[in-house]
Amino acid sequence: MSHDLLGHEHDILPQDAMKAVVALSRAGRILPDTYPARKIRYGEAAAKAFAWLQTTAKPLGAYGFQFLQRGLPGDTPIPADEWPTRQVVQLLWAGFERWLSTGAEADKDYCVARARELRSRQIPADRPEAGYHGHFVEFPSLPHSESAWRHGIARLDFGTDLGISSPTT
Question: In whole angstroms, how large is the CA radius of gyration of the chain?
Fold first, then answer.
């Protein structure tokens, strides 16, 4: 799913909240003490977004998933209960920024759990993909690796079809 899709420009996606936690936590930490109200407000907003990510936010599953960009058949079952690896990285980064801001043991434990989850998705040397290892699968329950480039845009829009078509043709 992407904000690039008509009708979804104002959606708040879990990955938006992940990035907000990073930005707000960091801003609250590095702003000079001459902005105490903002530091508090940013920290509170980051805490609220982080709590939402930990308790309520869910992966989007197949919603907005672009099979074409991954070379997957359109009938591939996309897990609804697994975060894609790039979002696990964002969750880890969000947790790390919270931990730096709070020093809370619970935030540290969250980081350790996400780091272990990320490490478990790495393609090992004894099972290389096309001779390569060290990169990651997109989902632990599926064998394909995480694409370096992907975007939640509809087929035949914005170059996903190699320029054969555009929204105006």
Answer: 18
